[in-house]
Amino acid sequence: MDPIENGELENLEIPRYFICPISMQLMRDPITVCTGITYDRESMEKWIYSCGKNTCPVTMQVMSNFDMTPNHTLRRLIQGWCLANTSKGVQQIPTPRPPVDPNQIKKLLRDFESCLPFQVVNGLKKLKALADESEANRRCIADCDGDSALISVIETNSVEMESGGYECAMVCEEALGILYKLPMADKTAESLTMSRILQPISWILKRGTCNARFHSVMLLKTICSSGQKRLQQLVVNANEDLFDGLLQLVTEEVCPQATASSLEVLMAICSPCRNNRIKAIEAGAIYVLIELLPESQIPTCEKMLCLLDILCECAEGRATTIDHAMGIASISKKIIRVSPAATEKAVRILWSLCKFSPTPRLLNEMVQMGAVNKLCMLQQLAYTLKTKHMAREMLRENGKHWRSSACVPSHLTIIYG
After folding, report:
1. Is residue 414's pLDDT more than 60?
2. Which of 208, 273, 307, 359 is the Cys-Cys partner for 204 at CB 3.0 to 4.6 Å?
């Protein structure tokens, strides 16, 4: 928590050398790097290890090493200033804890191999507390091969968890929570995409606590962006339970980030593989998307339409969309009214339906729901050439069917009759 977060303290003057050049916030744990510039430790660790930078942010010099020397004098001055200003609402800054001893981490990890589930849960909570303290601690856990140990813990407890073992479920959930905080190594991503690990992750997506489900989907999202090879493994090993769990997260709307990440994972694993599109359809993906579309917010709406577009690439997806009573209405409603990206996806879905499944029911519904009028309007608005071309093609191919309707503008019969 920032010691100065109260809006009433905005006019309080902070000595400029107390402010971190990266975060522009009051430093809590000032350290000096090899270039002689002082930063807050957390900001500098994120700069180096999360952002992958090797330069000093102020001087832009390449750093010869990443040593961080604590600036105790400056820290005491900052603590003294905070103490002197407590009457003005400034919170005191505690003395930072030293980085964790790797031997302590290794002992915790070794104990997981021989302890009972309730003891493993306690050990995992200690490990999580250390991981929460700092980026340095998280990196130390990863350097001690903590990710492999955590994956082994999940694998060991997964069978009993799926059989109803409460303590084993807690073990797996705690282990996933720590894995979520650690930097994702290539070998970790590879292990997480194996069927024997995907199964407990899928179980937690459906039945776990809200936090555990969130951690699970965020891990899957990280895997999807960790490279084509790992994504391909996830695509191949994705099971029916995984689709059920992801769709359940979308339906229940645990939190916006979990919903968005679930949709992104579904897009990533369905796009390159027809079998996965079929699995998603059989799991009820199209019903979920169509029923949630009307009330969805812009970012979520765009992702839902993108996933629906992917599913409509196969005949089963198109048939399910047309058969749904709300299908055409939900899609048509999003044209023009949401965003250019949503309009393009909605038009593309309708184009796909008209191109490959032009049933009389579909064409009539498009007139009744106002889709045809919107296709005409698109020709006069500032949308992409691609969007306009798809709209024009639908009008040209189906104009003879639509021109007899009183709902269609009269100029349509002239242009496309």
Report:
1. no
2. 208
Task: Determine the pLDDT at residue 52.
Answer: 83
Q: Which residues contact 138 (CB under 8 A, 6 or more apart)?
A: 131, 181, 182, 183
Give the pLDDT band of residue 234 (cuts 50, 70, 90).
Answer: confident
Quick one: pLDDT band at residue 100, thresholds 50, 70, 90?
Answer: confident
- Angstrom distance (rounded) from CA 247 to CA 262: 7
* Per-residue pLDDT tens digits for 222-231: 988 887 788 8
Are the C-beta atoms of 269 and 238 separated by less than 8 Å? yes
Checking if the pLDDT of 264 tops 90, the result is: yes
**Which SS3 state, helix, strand or coil, does residue 326 take?**
coil
Single-letter amino acid code for the residue at 30 = P
Please give the Cα distance from 49 to 136 (Å, whole number): 9
HEC string for 196-239: HHHHHHHHHHHHCCHHHHHHHHHHHHHHHCCCHHHHHHHHHHCC
Q: Are 311 and 286 in contact (CB under 8 A)?
A: yes
- The residue among 99, 84, 169 whose CA lies nearest residue 133 is 99
In contact, 377 and 337? CB cutoff 8 Å: no
φ, ψ dihedrals at 2, nearest 5°: -70, 130
Alpha-carbon gap, residue 252 to 246, rounded angstroms: 10
Environment class of 42 (CB within 10 Å of its CB; exposed 0-12, middle 13-18, buried 19+): buried
Of 126-130, 185-189, 201-205, least confident by mean pLDDT is 185-189
- The more confidently predicted of residues 401 and 268 is 268
**Is residue 315 exposed (0-12), middle (13-18) or buried (19+ Cβ within 10 Å)?**
exposed
The pTM for the full model equals: 0.82
Six-digit token string for 166: 């409460």
Asked whether 223 and 192 are in contact (CB, 8 A), the reply is yes
